[in-house]
Structures are given as C-alpha cells and as structure tokens.
Amino acid sequence: MPKLGIRGQKLELTSVYKAGPCYCYRRRLRQTSKQQEGSQSTNVEFAKPRAGRRNAAVALGLEPGPHGSCGESDVPALVCGCCVVWCHRRNSRNWHDQQVTHKNTMPSIAVVGAGVVGLTTATLLQDALPGTPVTLLADKFLQDTTSDGAAGIYRPGLQFQGPSPEVTRRWLEDSYKYFKDILHSGEPEVTGVKTVSGFHFSSQYSNIVFNPFLKMILEEYRPCTQDELDFYGYKYGTFMTTILTECRRFLPYLTEKFKSRGGVVLERRLQSLEELAGDFDVACNCSGFGARDLCGDLSVTPIRGQVFKVRAPWVKHFYYVDYDTYILPGFDLLTLGGTRQFDSYSSEVCRHDAAAIWERCTQVLPSLRNGEVVRQWVGWRPYRPSVRVERETMTFPSKKTLEVVHNYGHGGYGVMTAPGTSINAVKLVVDYLASRKAKL
Questions:
Q1: Using CA atoms, how far apart are residues 393 and 408, in angstroms rounded to an integer?
Q2: Is the dihedral of CA 48, 49, 52, 54 positive or negative?
Q3: Which of 78, 110, 115, 168 could be cross-linked to 162 through a Cys-Cys bond (beta carbons 3.0 to 4.6 Å apart)?
Q4: Where are the extended beta strands (E) located within 157-269?
C-alpha cells in the first residue's frame, strides 16, 4: 500500500491507531471488501497521525459516514498524517494509489473568501488543476456574504476599472462568455443564471443610457422607441437583453460544485495571511473588503448599498433610471435600490434611505405599491480604484513567505465580473506553479 504523508511526502508506517477515520480511504476499503467475495476482513497497515491532527475528520464535520473512533464502524480506517487535506479527496479515488516520492509533486492551494469571487476562483482552479488540493477558508458563507444581496445584473459601468482598458475589456468579455456557457447548460433554477430584458431611462442625460461595450456584446441592444419613452415618461432610453445572476442560488451551486470535486471548506477567520505560510504553496486572496486588514490595502473603501427585496411577480422587466434608481427582477423577488455611500460603515437600515428608494421606484412603477416587502438589506461594496489581480511574494515579520495571488476590489461589479478576474487569477497561479516546477 502507498505510504503517503504531508503533501505527498512518504510516511513511515507505524502502529495501528484507532481514532478518527479518513473518510475517502474508508470508502475505498468498503469498495475493495465488496469485491472480495467471502472475505471477512481486509489487512491494512495504519499510519500514525501527526500530533494535533487526530480527529481532523471529525473537526471538519465530514459527511456522510460515522466519525470518531473506529469502533463506530466495522471497517478499519486510515488516519493520514495530513487528513485535514487528504480526507476530502472524495472524487480522486486514485489519490491514495499514487506512489509519490517528492514533497512538492502535488502543490496545495488556499482560497481566502467565500463570496462570489472566492467561489468562482476555487472552482476555476479545480478546472485548471485537476486533482490539486484546494481549500476554501472564510468566516462568512452564502447568505452572510455581501454577494448574497447583490442583484448581479451584467451591466458594467465606468467605475469598474482594471490596470488597463485592454485588461478591463478582457475581464468583461470572459465573464460574459462564462455566464453564457452556464445558460446553455440549462437548469437556471439551480444555477441562478438567467436572461432578463429591460430599460435604462433618463430625462436629463442622453449619454448615460448608452453603453458602447454592451451594444457590442449583447445580442439585443437598441434605443427605445418613441412609444416606449412616452409610455414611461422619459426623454432618453435604451432597451436591452442581458444576464442576471442571483447569488442566493449561484453561491450554493458553486459551493456544491466545489465540494463534489473534493474541495475542502473550512470556517476560519484569518487575522493575517501569514497563518497560511508553510501549509499552502500558494494562496488566492479573494477577501474583498477584508483585504484592508489581511494585506494592509487601505485603498479598499466600502460603498454602502441599501435595497428592498419585494415580491411583485407581475414585474418581468428591469428598470434603471439615471444613476441610482433600479428595479431588478430575480427568480422570486425584485431588488429595489439603491444607495452609493462612499466610506460609510453603517450596517443598519436607514429609514431615510428606505423612504427615498421607495419613492423613486414607485414613481417608475406605481404598481409596486401593491407588492409585498419581504425584507431590507444593507451591504458594503468593496471598492478599489482599480481591481487588484496580481501575484505577490509576501514576506512576514516571522521571515515566513507566502506566494499570494490577489483578486479583490470589484466594488459593485463583483458578481458580473468575478469570472473574468478569476480566470486571470487562476492563470497567474498556474504560471507560478509551472515556473516553480521547472526550477526543481
């Protein structure tokens, strides 16, 4: 039997240790036992775990299967020296069958942040580096993230900037293609990705209703007819069909996709990226606003947003008016907004903002007064003058080093641009690992 240890390093086998099972190996034993007709037992050698890792499988809350002492199961189990990483390799049955002799043959990658940027990065890493251990670390998940409240419509504004116009354009194009591919795969109720049509109106500024990039990339993008302008009471307008991604469905979809391919998810609040040094070969920093603390980037600024979530199923189109008034139909609820308050750290619902949003939106669609207000939501958009996607070798006071690929600072465009910036970030990871391997 292969003798595996930390990151593929050979591990000397010692005595039988019966305390917390490594799930993926136990499943392999069950399958092996079924193939051996009449066999009552399987002879297995056991590796003694490193100190502090004895019940790692239990600490991770692995499912399915019993955890704890081997007495809870009739099948013997191996406790790897690094089962925190190894026990999640459920979809790589040949993982334990590899006779790996070099410590650095199989790198390990951490992704910090479980919002839409972090989850997109994590799943794209699995696409680019099949079988490579990827661990997602965060202190907030799903409905606790800023991404959960975002409307997620594909409609880029001038505030979204990369390091150059060419890079920005590539991010936007890659993102649109990513979502189009998901659309073609079907199951919008599962993925949370759908098409939606609607209007952008203004009675003051003709330039803000026209977006040359959207005109180029969207299949339907045209000036409003005079009848449409007269009906809604505006002077200028554009009609378009674009993509909307509802994160209340999209984030669970990505999470399940990540875990089904062996991804490790850990609930952990990091005080510094230094905590990952020595345990991972490279870390992807997708921490959003948390980058202020994790890497001291004070250029990351919160833009406070407040919205209503309203049930009004008769509203099928989206509506934008000027800059900050919008009505966006999700799968079950409308998102009514909004606010753009720079450097505001308030997480409380402001009744004055609520009154202003309600007044503006009901002027656009008076029928909203008959809708059901389900909840109000406040979140911080992690704004940065230029989205940061780059590789950095971080050196800490302890003299430890960590290779970090940053991917944060998307502001209010995180959902619609996460695929493009994440494709860029993953390429930086792949290039770094290839260059490191070439030096060995």
A1: 17
A2: negative
A3: 168
A4: 193-202, 220-223, 236-245, 264-267
Given a cut of 50, whether residue 5 has pLDDT beyond it is: no
Coil, strand, or helix at residue 373? Answer: strand
What value, to the nearest 5°, has the Cα angle with vertex 62 and ends 58 and 63?
130
Q: Counting every residue, how long is the chain?
A: 440
Could you tell me what percent of the chain has a pLDDT over 70?
76
| Structural contact between residues 116 and 414, judged by C-beta atoms closer than 8 angstroms | yes
How does strand 134-138 pair with strand 264-267? parallel
Residue 338 preceded by cis peptide, ω within 30: yes
User: Which residues does residue 388 pair with via DSSP β-bridges, in sequence order?
Assistant: 408
pLDDT of residue 32: 38
Radius of gyration over every alpha carbon of the chain, rounded to an integer in angstroms: 25
Q: Write the pLDDT tens digit of every residue in 397-424.
A: 999 999 999 999 999 999 999 999 999 9
Cβ-based neighbour number of residue 312 at 10 Å: 18
With bands split at pLDDT 50, 70 and 90, how would you rate the model's confidence at 105? low
Pairing of strands 134-138, 109-112: parallel
Q: Which of 212, 189, 211, 213 is nearest to 202 (CA)?
A: 211
Q: In this predicted model, what pLDDT tens digit does every residue of 326-370 receive, in sequence order?
A: 999 999 999 999 999 999 999 999 999 999 999 999 999 999 999
239: three-class secondary structure by DSSP: strand
Are 380 and 305 spatial neighbours (Cβ–Cβ below 8 Å)?
A: yes
Q: Find the Cα–Cα–Cα–Cα dihedral 373, 375, 378, 382, rounded to 10°.
A: -100
- Of 2, 187, 166, 175, which Cα lies nearest the Cα of 96? 2
- Quick one: DSSP state of residue 106? S
- The confidence band for 40, taking pLDDT boundaries of 50, 70 and 90, is very low
- Strand-pair category, 341-342 with 301-311: antiparallel
Name which of 372, 379, 386, 375 is nearest 417 in CA terms.
Answer: 386
Q: Give the model's confidence band at 158: pLDDT under 50 very low, under 70 low, under 90 confident, else very high.
A: confident
Contact predicate 420/170, CB 8 Å: yes
Pull the structure tokens for residue 358: 């309600």
With tokens 């890079």, the residue in question is: 167
Domain edges within the chain: 109-438
Count the Cβ atoms, other than its own, within 10 Å of residue 72: 11
At the topology level, CATH places domain 109-438 in Rossmann fold (3.40.50)
Contact 160, 387 (CB under 8 A): yes
- How many C-beta atoms lie closer than 10 Å to residue 434's C-beta? 9
Q: Are residues 80 and 36 in contact, defined by beta-carbon separation less than 8 angstroms?
A: no
Both tokens of residue 154? 């594909």
